[in-house]
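Exercise 4. Each item below gives a protein and its sequence. For each, produce the structure-token representation.

Item: MFS transporter (Arcicella aquatica).
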Amino acid sequence: MKNISTNKPLDALNVFSFKGIQMQTFHITWLTFFFCFFGWFGIAPLMKIVKDDLGLTKGQIGNIIIASVSATIFARLIIGRLCDTLGPRLTYTWLLAIGSIPVMTIGLANSYESFLLFRLAISVIGASFVITQYHTSAMFAPSIKGTANAVAGGWGNLGGGVTNMVMPLVFAAFVGAGYANHNAWRFAMIIPGVILLIMSFVYYKFTQDTPTGNYANIKREAVQKGSFASAASDYRTWILFLAYGACFGIEITFDNVAALYFTENFSCDLKTAGLLAGAFGFMNLFARAIGGIVADKVGKVYGMKGKGWLLAGLLVMEGLGIMLFAQTGSIGFAVIAMLGFAMFLKMANGATYAIVPFIDSKNVGSVAGIVGAGGNLGGVLAGFLFKSETITYAEAFIYIGISVAVIGGLTALIKFEKKTLPVTEQTLEIA
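Answer:
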């Protein structure tokens, strides 16, 4: 029976509904995360222009790739804790407002060093994912959390693909208006910064922390002082940390290098490379959601053990697909291989966060933050491969594929079920 109370977590997801604070918050949070990608990775499809403008070397571009995801590691840990204490509404509002500043001003960079610092500052925006998953978890019942988290995360991640398609067009519009390339990319980045500032107001005005109200206005169970320690002491949290590094970490790395890879390896022009890179991100429209939906269905039959096996299998297939992609010699086969491994990768994203809310029901934010940080650590480690002057981009993808498959094998050995479960709807209602 579907709950009809307006102040309870929903036990069904109707994506065409905007009725009630739960669905209103759901749509605003995924849309906000979607626009965060425009700020976070808006510069990625323009890196060929930036490279020529600032005279960047392969090693310097590698450092920029690493910087674009590195600060997010620490930001996600902090943001997860803030969600548990301050609440997702205010946390997101402040993150958006502060994060919009370096996005709008990155055009002031006139050297490798200054550009690197701006890219590092912008990477904090990546912590927005933790808030989206936390807020969605608070609005839906346990039976549907995996699906709701996967749909919200997937539609938000779709911004990574759309960014690769849209930002070259924004750049072209400024060029068409008479600006030279070295100015056009600078003005283009003002657009996503302004959007983030607008969304900070929208989030503050039209969402609330839980179905029953904002943290400041409702009676909640006291947040334990040791909540982060509790989340960090569970070995399952760290296995998911590794798993998310092997899927989302590779996703953000590919978002960063895809356009440049297609440009330099297959001699594509900027728009074509952006469209091909965008196709990878565009699969978030359905692939991550499928991962969450399948995980929820598997969980109903086989429990947490089944969810763990599903995640492991997806990671192994992702790794094999990446290795195949790295060895393709034609652009046609490369695109087919890319779409193949993208399917498994994004399903693994959804399957991971179908497990996260059940690791520690009282500290969902801290668990989500740690696991989310793992995604960015994976991106940082992968970035070092693309920085190297001694290996090619194709060789880097082979090493990544092997690592992902190994982590998938390790995940298959882990027991995710815990005797202290099941988690009740009541405990997760305030999570």
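Check: Confidence is low (pLDDT under 50) at residues 1-5, 222-226, 419-431.
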